[in-house]
Design brief:
InterPro entries: THDP-binding, Transketo_C/PFOR_II, Transketolase-like_Pyr-bd, Transketolase_C. Its EC number is 1.2.4.-. GO terms for molecular function: oxidoreductase activity. Its cofactor is thiamine diphosphate. This is Alpha-ketoacid dehydrogenase subunit beta. There is one protein chain. The chain is of the alpha/beta class. The protein is 35% helix and 21% strand. A 7-stranded mixed sheet has the order 3-2-4-5-7-6-12, sandwiched between helices. The chain has a 5-stranded mixed sheet with strand order 9-11-10-13-14, sandwiched between helices. α8 packs across α12. The longest helix is centred in the first third of the chain and has 15 residues. The protein is globular and about 60 Å long.
Length: 326
């Protein structure tokens, strides 16, 4: 079985290439995705190899890009749309939540819209305003959308394949600060389900649940805690909507404690839904309340201050200590 080590961004590029090769109905659209290869070079070389009718440089108009993708999907295509940065998605929010998410239900199941919207998201790269947002909860709240986020190169490759093959619209959040993290990718492996969480580190004392950019941080926290004799389990959620509550429950029933970590603000974040649902399901197993670690309820700060805003190792370990103290 062929296994290659590649960066997360390269894994997405290879996945998009495979989709273009295997399905003539797949098209890629977005600002600067063609000749430039995207600002993060995720689509580098694809227009050169597949032509301007398959990899399409669009005007700077997110609402028009998504609206056009909806029209293409209605005609049988499988568009993959890139939103250049997370904060640029909001001009297209109306198209996404009122058209893309609702068409299947509105047509009583007769219309499918297999559209993937790629969104580089999160902070940690020293960017300017509107370039470091984490808006995943806004989309997870909308019925009719699937919302996923890989944390490693292998998942980036296979989850993109599965998202493109899905007949439902998928919001694909790419953790931009992890674009250059390398990992092993097998392009022949049989992947697990798109929306299945995965235990990436076994533990017995407490569960750390995260997705996207925070999974690596949780592994670092587990390493640090192990030096003090604490055994932390790390659960990569992978999918935010639908969310694999069964896997979270199974882990919590084993460890009896849960800390949820995400970059987005804690207030009304995805961790709130997880905390509420797991409290309902695991009330008699929990030995401490479910704790959350995330961003603050403020606009994303200037780059010089983002390290103070973003969850770091100390904040995760503090939550671990507070949980274990009950």
């Amino acid at each position: 079985m062929a296994v290659e080590k590649m960066a997360l961004a390269k894994a997405i590029n290879e996945s998009l290439r495979r989709a273009l090769e295997t399905d003539p109905k797949v098209v890629i659209m977005g600002e600067d995705v063609g000749k430039l290869g995207g600002v993060f070079r995720v689509t580098d070389g694809l227009q050169k190899d597949f032509g301007e009718s398959r990899v399409i440089d669009t005007p700077l108009a997110e609402s028009g890009i998504v609206g056009t993708a909806i029209g293409l999907a209605l005609r049988g295509y499988r568009p993959v749309v890139e939103i250049q940065f997370d904060g640029f998605v909001f001009p297209a929010y109306d198209q996404i939540v009122t058209q893309l998410a609702k068409m299947h239900a509105r047509s009583l199941g007769t219309v499918k819209l297999p559209v993937v919207i790629r969104i580089p998201y999160g902070g940690g790269i020293g960017a300017v305003e509107h370039h470091s947002e984490s808006p995943e909860s806004l989309f997870a709240h909308v019925a009719g959308l699937k919302v996923v986020s890989p944390s490693n190169a292998s998942d980036a490759y296979w989850m993109m394949q599965q998202a493109i093959q899905s007949d439902d619209p998928v919001i694909f959040f790419e953790p931009k600060r992890r674009y250059w993290d390398k990992g092993e990718v097998s392009t022949e492996a049989i992947p697990g389900p798109l929306h299945k969480a995965r235990v990436t580190r076994e533990g017995t004392d407490l569960t750390l649940a995260a997705y996207g950019p925070m999974v690596k941080l949780c592994h670092e926290a587990a390493d640090a805690a192990a030096e003090e004799g604490k055994s932390l389990e790390v659960l990569d959620l992978r999918s935010i909507s639908p969310l694999d509550f069964d896997s979270v429950q199974a882990s919590v029933e084993k460890t009896r404690r849960l800390v949820v970590v995400h970059e987005a603000p804690v207030f009304f974040g995805s961790g709130a839904e997880i905390a509420a649902r797991i409290t309902e399901r695991c009330f008699y197993h929990l030995e401490a309340p479910v704790l959350r670690v995330g961003g603050y309820h403020v606009p994303y700060p200037p780059a010089r201050l983002e390290e103070e805003y973003l969850p770091g190792l100390d904040r995760v370990l503090d939550a671990v200590d507070r949980s274990l103290a009950y």
